[in-house]
Design brief:
The complex is a heterotrimer of chains A (177), B (908) and C (322).
Chain A (H helix, E strand, L loop, with lengths): L1 H18 L25 E3 L14 H5 L5 E7 L5 E9 L8 H5 L5 E3 L14 E2 L1 H4 L12 H4 L15 E4 L8
Chain B lengths: L2 E4 L2 E4 L6 H7 L23 E5 L8 E4 L10 E3 L3 H14 L17 H9 L10 E3 L9 E3 L9 H9 L6 E3 L6 E3 L14 H4 L5 E3 H4 L9 E6 L8 E7 L2 E7 L12 H6 L12 E4 L5 E4 L1 H12 L5 E4 L6 H11 L4 E2 L4 H16 L7 H5 L3 E5 L3 H4 L1 H10 L2 H9 L7 H8 L6 E5 L11 E4 L2 H15 L11 H16 L3 E6 L5 H13 L6 E5 L5 H7 L7 H9 L5 E5 L9 H10 L2 E6 L11 E4 L8 E4 L4 E5 L12 H12 L1 H4 L5 H11 L22 E2 L30 E2 L46 E2 L25 E6 L13 H4 L6 E4 L1 H7 L6 E6 L2 E9 L7 E5 L13 E6 L7
Parallel strand pairs in B: 1-5, 16-17, 16-23, 18-19, 18-21, 19-20, 21-22, 23-24, 24-25, 28-29, 31-35, 32-34
Antiparallel strand pairs in B: 1-2, 3-4, 3-5, 7-10, 8-9, 11-12, 12-13, 14-15, 14-25, 26-27, 27-30, 31-36, 32-35, 33-34, 33-36
Chain C lengths: L2 H33 L15 H11 L10 H18 L17 H23 L2 H32 L4 H6 L6 H4 L1 H14 L11 H4 L9 H26 L14 H22 L5 H32 L1
Helix pairs in contact in C: 1-10, 1-11, 2-10, 3-4, 3-10, 4-5, 5-8, 5-12, 8-10, 8-12, 10-11
Classes of the chains: A alpha+beta (177), B alpha/beta (908), C mainly alpha (322).
Chain lengths: 177, 908, 322
Amino acid sequence: MNIFSALASQFRTMWRILLHTFTRAETVQYPEQKPYLAPRYRGRIVLTLDPDGDERCVACNLCAAACPPDCIALQQGTREDGRWYPEFFRINFSRCIMCGLCEEACPTNAIQLIPDFEMCEYDRSSMVYEKEHLMIDGPGKYHDYNFYRVAGMEIEGKAKGEAQNEAPPIDVRSLLP
Amino acid sequence: MPTIYIDDQPYEVPEGDNVLQACLSAGLDLPYFCWHPAMGSVGACRQCALVQFRDEQDTQGRIVMGCMTPVAEGARFSMQGPDASEFRSKIIQSLMLNHPHDCPVCAEGGECHLQDMTVMVGHRKRSYRGRKNTHRNQYLGPLVHHEMNRCIACYRCTRYYNDYAGGTDLAAQGAHDHVYFGRQQDGVLESEFAGNLVEVCPTGVFTDKPLVNDYTRKWDLQSAPSVCVGCALGCNTSVGERYGKLKRIHNRYNTEVNNYFLCDRGRYGGNFVNDESRPLFAGLRNQQQRYDAIEQQQALDTLAEWCGTGRRVAAIGSPRASLESNYLLRRLVGVENFNSGMADHEAALLSQVHGLLASNGVVTPSLQQVEHADAVFILGEDVTNTAPRLALALRQSVRSKAFELAAELKIPVWQDEAVRVLAQQQRSPLHIVAMSDTRLDDVAASTAAHSPDDIARLGYAVAAALDNSLPAIEDLASDLQSRAQQIADDLRSASRPLVISGTASQSAAVIDAAAAIARALSQTDKMLSFCLPEANSLGVAMLADAQQPSFSELTRRSNNGEIDTLLVLENDLYRRAPQSSVEALLKNAGKVVVLDCVDTATMSCSALALPTASFAEAEGTLVSSEARAQRYYPAFLPAEQRQPAWQWLKQMGQQLQPARFDPLPHFDDITAACAADCPALSRIAEAGPNAGFRIRGLKVPRQPHRYSGRTAMLSNHNVHEPKQPVDEDTPLAFTMEGASGARPGALLPFVWAPGWNSNQSVHKFQSRVGGPVSGGTAGVRLIEPQQEVSHSVLPPQPVFTASDAVLWLLPLHRIFGSDELSARAPAVAELVSQPFIQLNTTSAHRLNLNEGDYAILSWADTRCEVQVQINDAIPDGCAGYGMDLPGAAWLPPDTHASITAADGGSDV
Amino acid sequence: MSETMTIIFAISVMLAAVGGAAVLTWFERRLLGIWQDRYGPNRLGPGGILQVVADMLKLLTKHDWVPPFADRWVFIFAPTAIVVAMLLGFAVVPFGPGLHIIDVNIGLLFFIGMTSLAVYSVLLGGLASNNKYALLGGLRSAAQMVSYEVFMGLSLMGVVMLSGSFSMQDIVESQRDGWYCVSQSLGLFVFTIAAIAESHRLPFDLPEAEHELTAGFHTEYSGMKFAMFMLGEYLGLILISCMITTLFFGGWLAPFGATWLPPIVWFSLKTFIIICFFVLLRAAIPRPRYDQLMSLGWKVMLPLTLVNLVVTGAVALWMQGA
């Protein structure tokens, strides 16, 4: 009978929950006891540098577009060496939900989430991080990737045809095949 | 309408279309690159492939290109079938072979037709292992950025630039996979319509250079439908804003006006809005002749004191301000104290034009009608520089001959290459008689440069040749006589002749002659168009009242001390009248109050300066030279104390005359009051939907649904997000929420459709591909041709005889620089030439001047020094000057100046 | 008891009930924590007991806010009603032999009457808030409570038949031969479910159902008015546990003749265990859908009750005859 098995299931549930009286708590006594955070834990957001020590972010705006609470705002600028960079880059952490979609969206591995979530403030405005608060001095989780080595855009120190998998520029005036 | 079958589904499609157009019109997503609705098909990219079957039994079929296949009754195609799909995905793969992996740093990213099409066919991963071809970029000037690596060789750029816009300096170079689209060497693109490459290029080869250096993705722009204020044509634009700055202006599709294209003045000139010298606060001049920033209420109180009872107040409106602002100003001071803001001669010309439009019995064509004219006669205008978009339309009109020939052979109009090859150099006649050479000379059947007097005489001669009842012109040189006969013959034998004239020659006779020709023509589809100087020139002419004092009358009153307070609305008087008379007017007028969105010489003379919102921050109605009233809407809120001029005037009115101004709380009320008070403008309320307009109960959003950064863009000022501003005066909302999909053409802030992020998505808003916007074309034509009333022709001008002593100074308008506002945009400012004077070789020899020398011009009490250019197209006895001579922004018509070489020469 | 003593006793019962309800908020959270493998509030005071004080302070110091769109007087009245009704219910609870505020001969009916009054509070709160979620919560509670009211009363009639009285003390006394939890097990089952529904506790908290209705009927409530709703709910929990003890588990009677503990301790112990059981229900059973709740009430519970009533009646008559 359906109704009896349903009833039995309810009592079985209750019994199994009751057994949990004798199991240990899964949670830890934070802050005395710190939990283990995996390297890919999604916490505070940082902006990283490429292996050459230059800014990775190219201000493409994809992180801002992916951000569900719309808490990333930036403005693109062009540097004299031809690279795109963010003139300002602002994350309002009081709105951030640490979902990591910005990191997923980032084509240059510039924006990364790190295992740090301890960012309590008494003043909400202190949760607004500008570029200088977000930048770290290193490549973060991805050590080797350098967007400008792959992309065909010309920048100082890397002319046309010098990116990965590129042939030297074509001489239009040449008749050779 | 034939029925075709696509994937076994029947579709009724328009007769004469190709299959690609038919598919898109039917709402099917068929990828394409090289086809463009305005430029037709060439079948170059091979992307729109379908499989065509002979009949129902045929299961094999054959691959055809959608854009090259005409629709035929009962034709059967497969679009989703495996053969067609695979073919298309292979094509994309090969197009993407050399693509440089730089979407994040590409200004096309997010609105890229190539991205859309790649996603549409499902190509994800580059399987080719070989190396990518690369190209060096070129410097193409301050407007267009070049990144050749992104090219997919669809040839749209050269087809647009050369075939459509008549440019000569951009070409496909090299062969096979080395093909390169660029100039022979680095340099500024010569065409005045080069900016359209940004929208025509389906990828990021040509991008908007000012935008690239201060970039915002399309999805982050807050946009509003706007109208270009660069000239009087009223091209429809879409203005995009981010962080309080105007980021870019894009074309807003309007079949009857600008269609798919803008001129570069319109596209790049709007950046004056970001000018940091624009006033932000109300300023009251203090004892030290400097301005103190004051509160808005203090400004209004000061105004109330200065304009209160017992004070004699006069006001000067402006042809670059909206109808509403002009109307409120007039309402505030009364008709007898209001001037339209044009000097006497300009006001006279515009009232003449208004009269002719209203009573000449000839159609004033839309640009779409211009494109279909089959014989054109231009009198006294360098159209490319005075009404640029009209020149692009005229370039299409000369192809009428080609389409005639094609129709005879039953070649469809979209078979672009076939039609061009068929016609070769055969064009329908375009005759130009201007004051110098023009940029349309390359497609003209005949060109000539004369002084305005001679242009008018030639015009009357053409009219006389068309209509025997008109008096013949005596003393006409025989070559001019035969030319007049030729032009008359061409116009007579055409079925849609068009006569174009305008105010550039500053001659009433030229305008009158053009009207006489138009009247003399017998065709029912004859057209007459005038090029006018400013965005709302015709609007203020229509608003004008016979009781209005003229500019000189106001000056007289001021000099007699009869004006206690003078209000000047968005007008730099120094560009209207001689410096001395403006100075006298402003000095004797007691208190001068200037409302303007830019800092002008006039504003520097004011006792109280009020900052107004520019076209991008305000709403208003403008009347184009076609007499089309069009509404522009604010894209963003003005900063600090800036507010639309009509707001200032309304608040002023409410303080001074509450009974007359309290019933006008909102913009729509002002428009309605203006329409009620001025019979000629009675239909302006229909120019655009009013503030109560809703689509399914929703306002139209200014932001795309993907708009980002809402909770962060202002958090550096305040971490609590402000409420989205409420817009009470327009049907648009400052949010990303609201109606999507079909809406009136006047309410298209941006175009986007699912899967179509680029501007190609505009076809989703059209009733059929290339047709009008499904929700209705923007704007309302205020003047439809009336029954012709009898006109008396002005007496013919005397023959102009060149004098040795003085040269007639003729204005040579320039697309970059002649317009007051657009010249303040940084990118345009780079292209503005130095002030110059042009002489023909004969004059130059006589005056002992060479190219590059400096000459001193003197007339009346004015002297100025300016560089000399030699141009043999300048008529004898005349000299052309670029607008804005140093120290003499304004020259009266018929200025005859003596010219001498400057001593010391070019060291000035 | 003298009149003074009764008043003193009544006041102490009231204080104990309110205090118990307050402690219960903390106790329930701790217990839920244990069963859900976490800690629950354990920071303030020994075992976190001072959390109660902290919560109270917070609620007391909150802005006493009445939304401008609400029906002001009804909005204020609603939370008071539930507390008053629940507190009145304690008047008939027999805590020990002769240890009661009043022993009326319709004690059981009085209890049922008082619990039924609580529906007004929820309904009025939902209506007065002038908020769609609150209104939906109010509507749900009205339907739910009216439905479960029917067989909640009927389920107790078996007890009344067997004891032959509506007086609480009599019912307790009549269980000396055996607790009714055995003979009236079906009644106990139905009453327990009905009681949960009546006090709209999990799993039958559809009137507030935070996942669908934000907070249901008390969406617009905050501060002390919100606290009164909560107080009412916990008072209801205690009252119902007291009633189950009294009606089915022999009230203050000592089990197995273990009279070495005073009756009031036995009463409290039994009540405590039942409270724990209710907490366990909350920890274990998910919330049903609204239509499931209603169909369970009308299609299962009501027939079951009627069967119980008929069988008990027949047995009682048979035993009387025998």
